[in-house]
Design brief:
This protein has 16 helices and no strands. By secondary structure, the protein is mostly helical.
Length: about 400
C-alpha cells in the first residue's frame, strides 16, 4: 500500500500542472515575507529564468514550424492545402470571436488593475543577459522559407536534419523550459504579491477560465453546425462518438495522447471515409488549435487589463490574432504550448513584460486541458468538411 501511495505521490509531483500550481502558491506565500533585500534574490531568479525562456523561443519556432511544413507533402496537394486553410481559418475565427467577446465582457468584470497604489519594487542588482540568436519574427520568416524550400525541392536530407533539430528542441522544452517554468512563475507571483495586487486578481481569473470554457463549447457547436450543413449529414452522428476523446484530452492535456481514440471515434462513426480520416485527424491534431487560440486571445486581453490598466486596441489585437494562427501551427505539444510558441508575439506585438508573460503562462496552463479537448474535438468537424471537399473534387 505504501509503495502504491509513493508512486501516486511521485506521479503527482512530476505533473507539470501540479508544479505550476505549486509555483503560484509558493510565490504568493513568499511574496508576503520579502523585504527590500530578499526581493533582489527573487528579481535575479526571475530575470535569469526569463532570459532562458526567451532565448529558447526562436529555436522552438524554427524547430516546430519547419518540420511541420515539410510534412505537408503527404497526400493530395489540394486536400493538404485546403485542410491547412480551414485549420487556419478556424483558429483565427475562434480568435476573432474571442476578441469580440473580450471587448464586450472584460470591461464589465470589474477587474482591479495593478497600476494603483502598489508597493515599489527596487531595481535589480544582478542580471545575466542571454540574448536570443535572432528575433521571433526573423525565426518565423526563416521557418516559412526553409520549410517551403525543403517541401518544393524535396530535400530529404535537410528534412531529416530539421526533424532531428525538432527532437532536440523537444528535449530542450522538456528538460529546460518546463522544469524552470515553475521557478519563473513563482518568482513573478512573489513579486506581484510583494507589490500587493495579486490577491485582488485571482477571483477574476477563475471567472475568466469559466467564460473561456463556455466559449470552447460555443465554437465547437458552430463548427459542427457548419460541417453538418456542408457535408449534408447530421453532425451528431460523429459528435456522439467524441466524449471519450474529449475526456482523454482533458485528462492528459495532450492531443497526441488522444489521437488514437480520436481516429477510432471517427472510424466508428462511419461518417468520414477512412482514407480521409486517416490523414485529417493526425494532420489537424498538429495544425488546428482553435481552442488554444480562443483561450489565449481572451487571456491576453484580461491580463493586459489587470497589469497595464487597459485592453490592447483593435488594430493590435487583430494583428495578434492573425499572426497567432500561424504560430499555433508550430506549437509544441506541452502544457501551454501555444503560449510558448507565441511568446514573441505576446512581447513584441502586445508589449507584455515578463510579469505579463508569466501570468499568461500560468492561467493558460491551468485550463490547457480544456483548450486541448476543444482542439481535438473540433478536428472532427473539419474532417467532415475535408471529406465533402475531396468528394466534390
Amino acid at each position: 500500500m505504501s509503495q502504491i501511495l509513493c508512486q501516486m505521490l511521485k506521479k503527482i509531483a512530476s505533473n507539470t500542472l501540479f508544479r505550476l500550481l505549486l509555483g503560484v502558491i509558493a510565490g504568493l506565500v513568499l511574496g508576503n515575507y520579502l523585504n527590500e533585500n530578499t526581493i533582489q534574490v527573487v528579481l535575479s531568479l526571475k530575470y535569469f529564468t526569463g532570459q532562458l525562456i526567451f532565448f529558447l523561443v526562436p529555436l522552438i519556432v524554427i524547430g516546430f514550424i519547419v518540420s511541420s511544413i515539410t510534412k505537408l507533402s503527404e497526400g493530395s496537394a489540394k486536400i493538404v492545402g485546403f485542410s491547412l486553410l480551414i485549420a487556419y481559418l478556424s483558429s483565427i475565427g475562434a480568435g476573432l470571436f474571442s476578441m469580440i467577446a473580450g471587448y464586450q465582457i472584460i470591461p464589465n468584470l470589474s477587474i482591479p488593475t495593478s497600476v494603483d497604489s502598489l508597493r515599489e519594487v527596487p531595481k535589480i542588482l544582478f542580471q545575466l543577459d542571454i540574448p536570443p540568436i535572432f528575433s521571433v519574427m526573423t525565426a518565423l520568416v526563416i521557418s516559412l522559407m526553409l520549410g517551403m524550400g525543403i517541401l518544393i525541392t524535396k530535400a530529404k536530407e535537410l528534412e531529416n536534419i530539421f526533424d532531428q533539430f525538432k527532437d532536440i528542441v523537444i528535449l530542450l522544452v522538456n528538460k529546460v523550459l518546463i522544469p524552470i517554468l515553475p521557478f519563473f512563475i513563482a518568482a513573478n507571483f512573489a513579486i506581484l504579491s510583494y507589490e500587493g495586487s495579486i490577491e485582488k486578481q485571482l477571483p477574476v481569473f477563475l471567472k475568466v477560465i469559466l467564460i473561456v470554457i463556455i466559449g470552447h463549447f460555443i465554437w465547437m457547436t458552430l463548427m459542427y453546425t457548419i460541417a453538418g450543413f456542408y457535408h449534408k449529414t447530421n453532425p451528431f452522428k460523429l459528435l456522439k462518438h467524441y466524449p471519450p476523446v474529449y475526456l482523454t484530452a482533458v485528462g492528459t492535456m495532450s492531443s497526441a495522447a488522444s489521437l488514437g481514440i480520436a481516429v477510432k471515434a471517427v472510424d466508428d462513426s462511419k461518417v468520414i471515409k477512412p482514407t480521409i480520416a486517416n490523414f485529417t485527424i493526425p494532420f489537424f491534431s498538429n495544425t488546428h488549435l482553435c481552442g488554444s487560440v480562443l483561450t489565449e486571445v481572451f487571456f491576453v486581453m484580461t491580463v493586459s487589463q489587470v497589469l497595464y490598466g487597459h485592453i490592447p486596441d483593435l488594430g493590435t489585437m487583430v494583428t495578434f490574432v492573425l499572426l497567432l494562427g500561424v504560430f499555433a501551427v508550430g506549437a509544441p505539444g506541452v502544457p501551454g504550448g501555444t503560449v510558448v510558441a507565441s511568446l514573441g508575439l505576446i512581447s513584441n506585438v502586445l508589449g507584455f513584460d515578463e510579469a505579463g508573460v508569466a501570468l499568461i503562462l500560468t492561467i493558460f496552463a491551468l485550463q490547457d486541458s480544456f483548450g486541448t479537448a476543444c482542439n481535438i474535438t473540433t478536428d472532427g468537424a473539419l474532417s467532415m468538411i475535408v471529406d465533402k471537399y475531396a468528394e466534390e473534387k
